[in-house]
Write a structure and sequence with these properties.
The complex is a heterodimer. Chain A is built from 16 helices and no strands. By secondary structure, chain A is an all-alpha fold. Chain B has one domain: MetI-like fold. Helix content of chain B is 75%, strand content 0%. The chains are: A mainly alpha, B mainly alpha.
Chain lengths: 328, 271
């Protein structure tokens, strides 16, 4: 997606280490000539607003978040403005909390299971739509709808569909002779319920990306495989799938990062309950900070920072994968 | 291909119908009478349909819808104003530190919104912009700005350098070039970024619920949320509001499908 310029820039950055700014274009080691200085000044003029914005509305809130997590912040602190420094006490408290391990396990299960189903179904549909039949582009467009709907809308709809007494899903299950399931109110099923809704929402994203990944593969390759006598199954596993590997890696990583932060769906459907059965780290953080009349911002931001560390870990792998894709 | 494509089409229609069933169900429930709501098995089509849900929307939800339009448009303007110039600079002017900025934007995109809410909350309390539309616009724009810069950068680096050089030879400065040469040919990027900024701001629930839950002007997501909390029985009104809240997504999909696809694949697929 990025053009030649930024690709060259990223190659240079890799050579110099990721944290270093890109070197000047003029031969390195020499001071900038006045013309170059003027060019740099105008180049910076155009990015200055975004840089200021990032500092004010990303860096500063994040700094505040770290600050919150190493102090004991109470409702009174908002008024008086002072909160005693408490070091890593908030972190050790959340690690020892009985909610921590269910939240971590639920986050992992929710993320991995969501991704596995979204990706498998999305890829299968991409391969299906790649065969281009009458109405295929219209139907493919319609598939985008679940992804475009406000999450709150999807979550409310699924809540009603999965309602124990009046939901269509249980009516259907009863019609085929299966028992009614307390999707949202049983601790055994609540995570499955939010997973179903989340997989549904994520399928279009995977479909669209894998479809355009397929389109970027030259049709010659498929023709050559067909001439060599490969059947459809072999063509997929031996030709298509290996060629899709870079795009797949990126789709999966983006999926991980997006799924880690899912909040709306779970909050609307189960509020993380019953008990902690569908509580993820994002939900737990919200519950601590905003879920009760006695907000515990310090613990909430400590949980949030744990979530950031996990997200950034995957983000760095993603950026590496992207560079590798662009280098090919 | 022609001869056997009919069964592919049939299969495709079947898959699409299954996928869109929840959307159909939302519409069906929005037209169901309250007295039929708990019927078992439920009506599969709205027999004896009613518009009482929609009249409840008209009576109670219009201010929420208006606020959502305002917030979404505000977010689009903020996002474009910040992202387009930055994209131009990163694509064409080679600023020192541009690579580091790109890297920062990629990371910024990955930060969970739940973490941002707490930082924003403490900052907004101090600035006194908690529960204000402006505060919500700024918070919502953080979802779209990094994406916007990446889209503009990618798009603008495909504009031929000759075009920029020709403008310079004609005596245009960087600002003039940006306004009169770059922006007019970047219409597709503007549409893609605006569309996503609008949809994300329109759909936002988390920022609205934490930063604007006591505000005089609240967006439609909070309207639905209040419905769910208050009158658990009136599901036709809840679903009617949900249907109305889905209209922008549907309109944008019909009018701008290729831009949607372009935005989804940005960053994931090399072209």
């Amino acid at each position: 997606m990025t053009g030649d310029k930024s690709r060259a820039g990223s190659a240079e950055r890799q050579r110099d280490g990721a944290a270093m700014p890109a070197p000047p274009r003029a031969r390195p080691g020499r001071p900038l000539r006045p013309a170059q200085l003027r060019a740099q000044a105008s180049a910076w003029g155009f990015i200055a607003p975004v840089v200021a914005y990032l500092v004010a509305f990303y860096a500063y809130p994040l700094y505040r978040n770290i600050d919150l997590s190493i102090r004991t912040y109470t409702v009174a602190s908002f008024v008086t403005g002072n909160a005693p420094y408490s070091g890593l006490a908030n972190y050790s408290r959340i690690f020892r909390s009985p909610t921590f391990s269910p939240a971590l396990v639920n986050t992992a299960v929710f993320t991995f299971v969501s991704i596995a189903f979204q990706f498998a179904i999305g890829l299968a549909l991409a391969v299906f739509f790649y065969r281009r039949f009458r109405l295929s582009s219209l139907l493919r467009a319609l598939f985008l709808i679940p992804w475009l709907l406000p999450l709150l809308v999807s979550a409310s709809t699924w809540s009603w569909m999965l309602n124990s007494d009046s939901g269509i899903v249980n009516s259907f299950l009863q019609a085929i002779g299966a028992g009614p399931v307390d999707w949202l109110t049983s601790p055994h099923w609540s995570l499955a319920a939010v997973l179903i809704a989340n997989v549904w929402i994520g399928i279009p994203f995977n479909l669209v990306i894998m479809y355009s990944g397929l389109q970027s593969i030259s049709t010659d390759v498929f023709e050559a495989a067909a001439i060599d006598g490969a059947n459809g199954w072999q063509r997929f596993w031996r030709v298509t799938f290996p060629l899709l590997r870079p795009v797949s890696a990126i789709t999966l990583l983006l999926g991980f990062i997006y799924t880690l932060k899912v909040f709306d769906i779970i909050w609307i459907m189960t509020r993380g309950g019953p008990a902690t059965s569908s509580t993820t780290l994002a939900i737990w953080s919200y519950q601590l900070g905003f879920g009760s009349l006695l907000p515990d911002f310090s613990s909430a931001s400590a949980v949030g920072n744990v979530l950031i560390i996990i997200a950034v870990f995957f983000a760095l792998i993603y950026i590496r994968a992207r560079h590798r894709l662009e280098a090919t | 291909m022609k001869r056997r494509s009919w069964w592919l089409t049939a299969l495709g229609v079947l898959f699409t119908a299954a996928m869109l069933f929840p959307v159909y169900w939302m519409i069906n429930v929005s037209l169901t009478r309250t007295s039929d709501m708990r019927k078992s098995p439920p009506h599969l089509i709205p027999v004896d349909g009613t518009l009482e849900g929609y009249s409840a929307v008209l009576r109670q939800q219009l201010p929420y819808l208006g606020t959502s339009v305002l917030v979404a448009l505000g977010t689009v303007i903020v996002t474009l104003a910040l992202a387009a110039p930055a994209g131009y600079s990163l694509a064409k002017l080679r600023p020192k530190g541009g690579g580091a900025l790109n890297f920062t934007l990629l990371i910024a995109q990955m930060i969970p919104a739940i973490v941002m809410t707490m930082g924003f909350y403490t900052v907004y309390i101090k600035l006194g912009i908690l529960n204000s539309v402006w505060g919500l616009i700024i918070a919502d724009s953080t979802i779209a700005v990094p994406f916007g810069v990446l889209i503009f950068t990618a798009f603008m680096s495909r504009i031929p350098d000759e075009l920029v050089q020709a403008a310079r030879i004609d005596g245009a400065g960087a600002l003039r070039t940006f306004r009169s040469v770059i922006m007019p040919v970047s219409r597709n990027a503007v549409v893609t970024v605006s569309l996503f900024a609008f949809l994300w701001a329109w759909s936002d629930f988390l920022f609205a619920n934490t930063l604007d839950s006591g505000g005089a002007l609240q967006p439609i997501t909070l309207g639905i949320y209040a419905y769910i909390g208050n009158n658990n029985q009136q599901w036709n009104a809840i679903m009617a509001t949900a249907v109305v809240a889905s209209v922008p997504a549907a309109v944008l999909l019909v009018l701008a499908q290729r831009y949607v696809a372009a935005g989804v694949t940005a960053g994931a697929v090399k072209d």
